[in-house]
Amino acid sequence: MEQAREWIRTASRVVVLTGAGISAESGVPTFRGEQGLWKEHKPEELATPEAFTRDPRLVWEWYDWRRGLISKVAPNGGHRALVELECQKRYFTLVTQNVDGLHDLAGSGRILKLHGDIWRFRCLECRSDWPDRRVPLPKVPPHCRCGGMARPGVVWFGEPLPDGMWLEAEHAAREAEVLLVVGTSGVVYPAASLITLARASGAKVIEVNIEETPVSSEVHVSLRGPSGELLPKMVK
Ligand code: BV8
Ligand code: ZN
Predict the structure, then answer these.
(1) Residue nearest ligand 1's atom 40 by CA
(2) What is the pLDDT of residues 175-231, one digit of tens each?
(3) Are 84 and 136 members of one domain?
(4) Is the CB of 38 under 6 A from ligand 1?
(5) Strands 150-154 vs 116-123: parallel, antiparallel or unpaired
(6) Same domain membership, residue 98 and residue 13
(7) 188 Cα: distance to centroid of ligand 1 (angstroms)
(8) Measured from the CA of 208, which atom of ligand 1 is nearest?
(9) Are residues 185 and 106 in the same domain?
(10) Which of 97, 35, 113 is nearest to 69 (CA)?
(11) Cβ of 184 below 6 Å from ligand 1
(12) Which of 232, 95, 87 is nearest to 166 (CA)?
């Protein structure tokens, strides 16, 4: 912990990569935990364009349920510690795999949402996209003003990440002096490749996770514990 605090304190260019684990203490189930989101369903079953084409109603019911759940929770000490860190650092980039919007709610400024945003919709017909925070949705699937069917504004498996976003994340990872990896199992690509990229570019890589992950062997320091408790201690 002391080594991690020292590296964070002295760095001026800090990048943070977060996953579902940072929202766990807020009450949002993670993807691959015991009571994980994927328990009843498998990723390929729901978070893919094929699943949506096959059964848009089922996919929308899953997102409506998740939106309802997320709307009842608040950011935790881990989210807030990253807002504090952003204020302390001259160059700071928060890259998140999460679509729950809790980093926005906590007050983070610069957020690269690699996998999109559960609070935004996109029209399949006219391609317009807009925020929608209604829970529950009056009817699913929701439609666009043009009459076209809407889809959740997230990136599904097999879909490319928003390209401008990915390039920015790569650039930030290359420039980072410290990369903080929080609450991710490191199994989803290309997000996880930012860790290898940062390390290869000379960054000190610190992991915060309650358990060992496939990434743990790649980082310089792996802190074992809940991010809601550890992050505030690391940025104080
Ligand atoms: C793409 C949005 C190419 C939707 C998500 C075979 C091998 C390798 C790769 C692939 C493959 N087959 C396919 C691929 C690529 C695929 C992929 O990586 N698959 C994986 C599963 C193998 N990736 C893609 O498809 C990506 N696109 O590659 O496109 C392309 C290019 C050009 C043109 C066409 C195509 C798109 C991936 C994005 C998928 N969308 N989410 C939605 O949310 O509904 S991914 C989903 O998983 C979420 O975003 C989530 O954030 C993400 C990663 O999971 P984690 O965040 O890590 O969450 P998880 O539950 O796994 O882990 C939680 C961690 O927290 C645990 O480690 C736990 O210990 C820890 N924790 C728990 N509590 C705490 C804690 N830590 C700290 N404190 C706590 N309190
Ligand atoms: Zn439309």
Answers:
(1) 156
(2) 999 999 999 999 999 999 999 999 999 999 999 999 999 999 999 999 999 999 999
(3) no
(4) no
(5) antiparallel
(6) yes
(7) 3
(8) 77
(9) yes
(10) 35
(11) yes
(12) 95
How many domains does the chain contain in total? Answer: 2
Q: Are 46 and 140 part of one and the same domain?
A: yes
Whether 34 shows a pLDDT value over 90: the answer reads: no
- C-alpha distances (whole Å) from 212 to each of 5, 129, 185, 215, 225 are 20, 38, 9, 8, 10
Q: Are residues 209 and 130 in the same domain?
A: no
**93: Cβ below 6 Å to ligand 1?**
no
User: Max alpha carbon distance in the chain (Å)?
Assistant: 57
* Cα angle, residue 111 at apex, residues 108 and 113 outer, rounded to 5°: 135
Instruction: Kindly calculate the radius of gyration of the chain based on its CA atoms and give it in whole angstroms.
Output: 18
Verify that 186 and 223 share a domain, yes or no.
yes
Which of 182, 185, 180 is closest to 220 using CA atoms? 180
- Taking the CA of 124 as reference, the closest ligand is 2
Q: From 146, 110, 112, select the one nearest 130 (Cα to Cα).
A: 146
- Which of the residues 115, 143, 171, 220 is marked catalytic? 115
131/221 same-domain check: no
177-202 burial: b if 16+ Cβ within 10 Å, else e: bbbbbbbbbbebeebbebbebbbeee
**143 is an active site residue:** no
Identify the domain containing residue 142 by its residue range: 34-72+123-154
- Domain match, 216 and 165 both: yes
Confidence of residue 56 (pLDDT cuts 50, 70, 90): very high
Instruction: Give the CATH number, domain containing residue 8.
Output: 3.40.50.1220
